[in-house]
Amino acid sequence: MRIGICSDHAGLEYKSRLISYLLGKGYEVVNFGTDSSESCDYPDFAHPLAFAVEKGEVDAGIALCGTGNGMAMTLNHHKGVRAGLAWGTAIASLVKEHNNANVLVLPARFISYRMAVSCVRAWLTTDFAGGRHQRRIDKIPV
After folding, report:
1. How many whole angstroms separate alpha carbon 141 and alpha carbon 89?
2. Closest-CA residue to 108 (of 69, 78, 74)
């Protein structure tokens, strides 16, 4: 599985550590930046990740910023991207099970790194339930 990952400056530390974690689990990882701790604008990194998801260049994505909201708002403006914000394992599982989120967004300033890993693990190992949930997804404009 090929996973794209991006962050702004607030999510840089967790992103760097998550890349190592994912590589260690056998995933292929594509880093869309940032790679600097200098203040930056999250859309500059969210858009390239979203385009890669749209084009099928990556199978899924992970995005991090301070609250996660900026990344989620930007990502969800792209056709075929369903970015779900999670701050706990139950939410991370549900954004996949119920919403078939193909991008997981994490609020780096509000969760521990340990929780970030738990969210990623839960999201990656949860299957989409389909059924009534697909009907609801079909009602989201693309």
Report:
1. 27
2. 69
Angle, helices 113-125 vs 12-24, to 10°: value is 50
- Please give the structure tokens belonging to residue 50: 């979203």
pTM score: 0.97
CATH annotation of 2-137: 3.40.1400.10
Here the tokens at position 77 are: 């403006």
The residue extents of the domains of the chain are: 2-137
CA pair distance 81, 4, nearest whole angstrom: 13
Which amino acids are annotated catalytic? Answer: 65, 98
**Tens-place pLDDT, residues 100-131:** 999 999 999 999 999 999 999 999 999 999 99
Q: In angstroms, rounded to a whole number, what is the distance separating the alpha carbons of residues 107 and 11?
A: 8
